[in-house]
Amino acid sequence: MLKLSAIQWTGLAVFFLAIFVGVPMMIAATGRTDLFFTLTSVGLLAIASAGVWLTFYIGRINIGQGAFALLGAYVSAILVTKAGMSFWLSLPLAGLFAAFVAVLIGLPILRLRGVYFAMITLVLTQVFTLTALALPITNGAKGITSIPLPGELSILGITLIPDFSTLENPRQAFYFTTAVLMVLTYAALYRIVNSRLGHLCRSMQQNEELASSIGVNISYIRVLIFAISSFFGGIGGAVFGSIAQSVYPSSFQVADSVNFMLNCFLGGLGYVFGPMLGTLVLYFGWDLLFELGKYQMLIYSSLLIFLMLVLPNGLLSLRLPKKGGQDK
Amino acid sequence: MEQILANGVYLGAQYAMIALGLTLIFALMNVLNFAHGQMYVLGGFVTYTFYGQLGFPFVSGLVMSCVTLFILGALIERFLFAPVIKRSSREESTMLLAAGLAFFFDAVILLVFGEKQRGVPKIVNGVFNWDFRLIMPYDRILICVLAILSIASFILFMQYSKTGRALRALAQDRTAAQLMGVNVDRYSMIGFALGAMLAGLVGGLLVTITGVNLGMGGPTSIKAFMMVMIGGAGVISGAIWGGIILGFMEAFGLAYLAQYGDITYLLIFVSLMIFLAIRPQGLMGKPWG
Question: Which of A203, B73, B137, B232 sits a CA distance of 20 to 30 A from A9?
Fold first, then answer.
């Protein structure tokens, strides 16, 4: 199982304290409850970005996560509003459905590599948006609105999660939900990377033919990884739809897909927690620059370009020059 | 039917030009230029400023679009892409840079030109009408002819000029080209600038018909990616074929499928996926680019 050094355990403990105790206390002290929503968004985007990072791990540039986030959001929304299902049941179903679609689409397109794969996943995002506009079940451009808040989850009469609509601050509840989901996602990611599967992925990242020649079933692994990645995307999208209580074809667009990829690049592709940091920095960077009004985009993009010039290998390459799987 | 074919030729010619620039940049530097659509919009706005606002002749507007984008492309390559390619441990890092550039151009366009749809006065009036079987405004025909001429001269340039030969050598094998005495840094810069210039030229040509607005950049990039995938990345003939095929598919789709709603692109994408499953490198591409 996990073999962590004392420093890593401490870091982990500090991290847990920060997100489960520190942040709610800070917000309670300052009274800025809007931060709950911001941090929840960061957490959800980090979950989806974790999926993108995983496809990077087998050497594929995935710019299609927006498509699966949109799919997850729609599946959950349709199950909750049309079939009257509990949100907590629809959440894993949304992830599984996204993974299922990823297998179907992945079988042909995962044969592509490099920029070909990047381009087709980008097109995929656009196509999912168009599909959502065209299909009757997604209600076209009007989208699905007034999705009820997540209801009660109880097992054998013991309430595990209370009904969100009865809470005085549903945003806080969403924050904790997201934090738990994010921790689970990254724990899973860490586990995958440090497992036999992770070794196989690294071998594929370096040379697929070579990996295949020594007996790695590359077509199985890449579909599996793509499905896991899309599962994360679907989960992230489903919770997002539930918080916003609405889903539109424009909820996740090409720009979002590109942002998921940027999060991974910015955080650094060699580090499991890179996408989380990248998401936090990008999202808060964008929010902080809001004060600048119409120059927001200009400064934001200039900073991105500048950052790329100074740190072409991601933010985490600053502090941890020796660790991580910096390949190539 | 004649109408659909004519529309196909018209769309195909303009698409091929967009794809040419993208594929040129990709072939030379292995950079997927996300900002290509934005460069196209920028070209449109330059022509709009010179021809529509300041009242210079249309041709001078086009020339200004080309010159501006050429210089811009050269500067971008020299000061942004070249250093990042040199220092990054992964080639893909340039994608972040390209995406950042796309955002940057969007911001600049928003600040300088605003988000309104802009149009220019028609360059030629009148409509070509052949017995109501084929109706085409004269300016569309003119733009189509100009686009085909530009493509032809670009191919000739690549085939017979010294610069073109150097660029093709660079695309085939960077190291070998360097060993043969090609100044790799300089020709990468020229190639990037040429690719940007082509985007600007199409933008300048099309501003007379479709006008130009801020939001056109992203979708244009996506279409260009599709064309490059159909034809094969980094191959000039592939880009032209990709453009023509997408143009015709769109023309037919709009004619026959419009009554079923907005499913043309959905079908194009599904067929693209099936096609790529059979032939992952596209029509003309080398395997794995």
Answer: A203
B222/A122 CB distance under 8 A: yes
Across the interface, whether the CB atoms of B89 and A328 are under 8 A apart is answered yes
CB contact under 8 A, A113 and B288: yes
Q: Which element (helix H / strand E) includes A53?
A: helix A34-57
Contact residues, chain B, for A295 at CB < 8 Å? 107, 111
Which residues on chain A are in Cβ contact (under 8 Å) with B226?
A: 119, 123
* Tally of domains in chain B: 1
| Domain locations in chain A as residue ranges | 36-317
d(CA A73, CA A239): 7
Per-residue pLDDT of chain A (328 residues; tens, 9 = 90+): 456 677 878 888 888 888 788 777 777 777 777 778 888 888 889 999 999 989 988 888 888 899 999 999 999 998 888 888 888 888 899 999 999 999 998 888 888 877 778 888 888 888 888 888 877 777 777 878 777 777 776 666 666 677 777 777 777 888 888 888 898 999 899 888 888 888 888 888 888 888 888 888 888 998 999 999 999 999 999 998 888 888 888 888 888 888 888 888 777 777 788 888 888 888 888 888 877 777 878 888 888 888 878 777 766 666 544 444 443 3
